[in-house]
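Sequence dictates fold. Below is an illustrative record:

_____
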Amino acid sequence: MGRTGSCAVPTAIAVTSADMALPPQDERTLPAVVLRDVDTRPLGQVLADLQMLIEQYGHVIVVCSQATPTAVRRRLHTLRSLLESDRIALFRPDLPPLGIAVLARQLRQLASCDLTPGVLASAGRLLVHYLHAGALLGSVARLDRVPVNLKQHAKSWMPGSQFAVLAHPQPQLVRLGPDTALDGPEFGTWMLVAKGQLQSDWVTGTLAPSWKVQGLREAPLPAESPGWWGTGRLIEFCTYLPDLSVLYQLVTSVRRTTCHWCGIDVIGDRCVFCSATPPGQENPHRPRPENRAAVG
C-alpha cells in the first residue's frame, strides 16, 4: 500500500487550543502541536516558538475554526508575515469546531505517512467532503451559520423546543419531533459527540442508528462551539472516516500537481502554503503570492 513508509520528520499539525487536540484515533496518530495563548503572549515569544517549530518540522499546518477569536487569527497572520515563510499553512475550513477537531486529527493520522507537506495540507480540503457535522440545539435565536426562517426563529422561543441542525455538507434545520431526520452519509462512518448544556439522547439514540454509524465516541465540547452555534444548550456531533488506510487511499488517488510558485506537490487548484493558483486561474484583483504572506 505504501502508507507504512513515513517521512523522516513529519509535518506538524497545529491547533489553537488544547480542546481541539482530540485523543489519538489509532497508534499512528501523531500528537497535535497546541499553539497556546497566541494572542496574549508577547509577540517575540510566540514568533520564536513558531520559528522553532518550522526548524524542527520543516512545515506547519495550522487548523483553526471560523469561530477562533479574531485576535488569534490576526496574530497568526502577523506571525506568518513576519517570518516571511511559505512553510506555514493557515487552514480555516467552514466547519463547526468539533468538525475542525476531527479534521485536524485525520491530518495527524496522515502525517505519519509518506505524504509530502503540500499534499498533506491539500488533503484537508478533500477530507472536508467526507464529514457530516451538526448539532442538536435548544435555541436557534442566535444561529447565523445556518439559514433560519422566521417561523423557526419564532418557535425557538417556545419552552422545550429543540432543533436538529446539519451545518455540513448541506445546511439543514428541522424542529425536533417524532419523525425528525437529517440527511446522513451514504458510506460507513464513526460518530463523535460532544455534549453541552442540553439533556437529550436523540443524537446517540436516534440519529446515530439512523445513520448506521459503525462506532460512537464522546469528547468534551470545544470552547468555541457555543459561539459558533449561538448557544451553549447544544449537543454537537460529527461523523468521519476513522481508518487510516481509507484516508490514505482517498488522498493518494487524487492527481498531484506541482505548485508553479513554490514548487511543492499539491492536490487541488490552489497551494495551501503560498496561496498560488495555476497559471491562467489567477484572480487579477487578488495580490500575487509574494504579497500574500498575511493572507494565508
Q: What stands out?
A: Residues 1-7, 280-296 have pLDDT under 50 and may be disordered. Helices lie at 43-57, 70-83, 97-110, 117-127, 150-155, 202-210, 225-229, 244-252. The two ends are 33 Å apart (CA to CA). The first strand starts at residue 12 and ends at 15.
